[in-house]
Write a structure and sequence with these properties.
By secondary structure, this protein is mainly alpha-helical. It has helices at about 5-15, 35-45; strands spanning about 55, 55-60. The protein has a two-stranded antiparallel ribbon with strand order 1-2. The longest helix is centred in the N-terminal third of the chain and has 14 residues, at about 5-15. The radius of gyration is 16 Å and the shape is elongated.
């Protein structure tokens, strides 16, 4: 599991990049939705992950983990 402090820092950084409010800032929200910011936040980490393998096992560096988040 990823460090909760790192998760909060990442969430704060994403909110800084694409704040939810005011929802009127995003053209996407003119369709009646209010999740334009979520689409931008999603582009930051893409839909996949590439990790190295060594002899059939994931090859993590010190302190590395896989974290899945949905915004």
């Amino acid at each position: 599991m990823m460090n909760p402090v790192c998760i909060r820092i990442y969430e704060k950084w994403l909110e800084h990049l694409a704040p939810h409010e005011p929802v009127s800032r995003y053209q996407h929200n003119r369709t009646g939705e209010d999740n334009g910011d979520a689409h931008l936040k999603r582009t930051d980490h893409g839909s996949g992950s590439c990790r190295g393998c060594h002899w059939g096992k994931l090859d993590f560096g010190p302190g590395e983990q896989i974290f899945y988040g949905e915004f």
